[in-house]
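Worked example

This section walks through a single chain of length 203. The input is the sequence exactly as stored; nothing has been trimmed or padded.
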Amino acid sequence: MRGKLITLEGIDGSGKSTVLERLKAHPAMSRVVFTREPTTCWIGEAVEHAIHSDTDHLAELFLFTADHAEHISKVIQPALEDGKTMISDRYSDSRYAYQGVTLGDRFDDPIKWIQSIHSGWTIVPDKTILFDIDPKIAVGRCGNRGEQTKFEKIGFLERVRANYLRLAEEDPGRFMIVDTDRPIEKIEADVVELLTSVVQALY
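Given that input, the structure is written out below as C-alpha cells.
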C-alpha cells in the first residue's frame, strides 16, 4: 500500500515549527516519518544561503525547486513506496505562496506559473494543514526569536497569507485551516486530533 503525505504550511511566525517539534514527541505520531523543506542536503543549504542574501528571485525559486526535486527523489518517493506516512514541514505550497509574491513583478499570475513548472513530477500532498494567523502577530513572534529574514516583513507576509488562502480556496478537499492565534497547547491538541483523523481516513 502506498504511503500518505501530509504537509504543514503557514507564514513565518505562525507557530508551525514549534507545534511540529511537539508532534515529534507525541505518542500518536510514533510511526510517522518527519521531514522538511528546505532539506538538509547541499541544495537545501544553498537555499538557506539564498534566503539570507540578495539572490535574484527567479534564481532563488529554481534553488527551492531543485531542492524539492531532490527531496522527492531521495526521501518522499521511497518512503511512500514503503507505505510510510510522511509529514513535511513546508513543501511545494510554500513556493507557490512565497515566490508567488517575490515574482509578482515578472508574471501576470506567478502562482500559476510556478505550479506549471512543478506539473508532471511533483507529488501532490494527500492533505495540507495550513497554520493561519494575522501577519501582525506573526511578525511579533519572528522578532522575538532574533534576526529576521527578508521574508519576515509584515507587508510581505500579508501577501503570502493571501496566497495561502487562495490555494486553500482552490483546493478545499486537500487543505485544512487551523487558527494559530491561540496558546500553543491548544494548537497542538487540535493539530494532533486533525492528523490522527486524517491518517485514519486516508487508510
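What to look for: Residues 19 and 188 are 6 Å apart (CA to CA).
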